[in-house]
Amino acid sequence: MNWFLYIIFGILPSFIWLCYFLRKDVHPESNRMVLKIFLYGMLVTLPAILLEKGIDNFFFIWFKDSVFGKILYIFIGVALIEEVLKYLVVRDKVFSDPEFDEPTDVILYFIIAALGFAALENILCLIQFKIFQEVVFVTFWRFFGAIFLHALCSGTLGYFLALSFYTPEKKLKLLFSGLGLVTLLHGVFNYSIIRAEENLVFIFLPIIIIIGLAIFVSLGFAKLKKIKSVCKI
Length: 233
Fold this sequence. Notes:
mainly alpha; 9 helices; single chain
């Protein structure tokens, strides 16, 4: 395996999901803006790795190999860190941009940032596999699993924030509610995947989470399309 193939297989799942979600946009965003947010999503993967490593070391010192410490790390040291960083990309690079003019844009840009994040994460995951068949197998499962999860979690948070633009007095409540929900689901997904290696019963939780979030985001798109484009950020 060479680096070119790792990059292709790493980015391809995100690209396929990106094309799927972009088709839901009634008024397509510019290629410049889509590429910009996708690349920023990729970039925040690097500080995410550093923060996760630092928090991992912190929890190791305080909890060592305790089950509580491992669970806390999965939810705070991984899920929360990743969801917050993806949120910051959209908050800093989208909300003040003139191209941001529709309710559905909120969900869409969150998903774009998440797919960029998932693309680099996927590349870094695949490079540990040296056999082509293994890379194909892992790419296939991550396409429907971790990569789709990133998009759906961010899309869900985007829906909460889209609602907050119409009820400004509830903005913080909706932000923290959405962030709390996706962090919880992201953490449960990761924890279940780890436990599934020991007990296959845990494999059903990730499936339920993916299906539930997919339905929620789809309904969110449909609801926001009915709202007149009056977003004022």
